[in-house]
Amino acid sequence: MYFDLNAQSQAHIDLLIHLGYTVIALNQTIQSKYDPKKHKNTLSDIPPRPGIVFLKRLTIILDAESEKGFNLTSNHAAFFAGYDIIALMPTTQATLSAACLTHTQPSPLTTHIISIPLTLPRLPFHLKHTLIRTAIKNGAVFEIPYTGALTAPTNWWASAREVVRVTKGKGIVVSSGAEEAGDLRAPRDIANLVSLLGLPQDAAHAALTKEPKSLVLRARTRKTYRAVLSEPTVVIPEGWQPPVTTAQESTTTPDSTSSTGKKRPREEDTSTPKDTQSKSTGEKKKKKRKKDKGGTGGTVTPS
Question: Which superkingdom (predicted)?
Answer without folding.
Answer: Eukaryota
